[in-house]
Amino acid sequence: MYYQSGQLQFSGVGNFSGVPGETDLLLRNVNTGGLEVYDINNSQLTNAAFIGTVGLDWQFAGIAPIHAPGASDLVLRNVNTGQFEVYDIVNNQLTNAAPLGAVGLDWQLGGFAVDPPTGSMGDSSEAARLAQAMAGFGGGSGAAEGVNTVAPGTDASQQALLTTPQHA
Predict the structure, then answer these.
(1) Collapsing DSSP states into helix, strand and coil, what is residue 30?
(2) 78-105 pLDDT, tens per residue?
(3) Beta-sheet strands, E only, within 24-113
(4) For the chain, how many structural domains are there in total?
(5) Domain-embedded: residue 162
(6) Residue 65: which domain range?
(7) DSSP summary character for residue 68
């Protein structure tokens, strides 16, 4: 396996393998930007797959169903430009990458909002929804340490959306 002590950073969980009922772990090498998926079944690691390398100026923003309902796609944000990029992961492989747009560096990620009941973000307003999910939680690097997801069934129209960034 790819693991070397102190070099891997947790980057999220999702069903990257496509095996029904399986939850997989995504780790990133902090020195190289390499991404590795670990398949977990019945509380056991069953497989490891290296899926590629992403530049170190891209930080983890979240795992969300962007390209299809129920998908586990990786979203990264460039710490220098505020640009978001989505990476589709299917069968433990990167299958596509696409830009989602940029948000000013004075904004931090607050979470992702999905449309109930399907949980889909896969339409032409993906960047707008991503921007609505942004929240200013103080200054910093522009990327939050964790990602909060809006619970299914929550009416996003009743939630407070972006107004102005908060400054530390």
Answers:
(1) coil
(2) 999 999 999 999 999 999 999 999 989 9
(3) 24-29, 34-41, 44-53, 58-64, 73-78, 83-90, 93-102, 108-109, 111-112
(4) 1
(5) no
(6) 8-156
(7) S
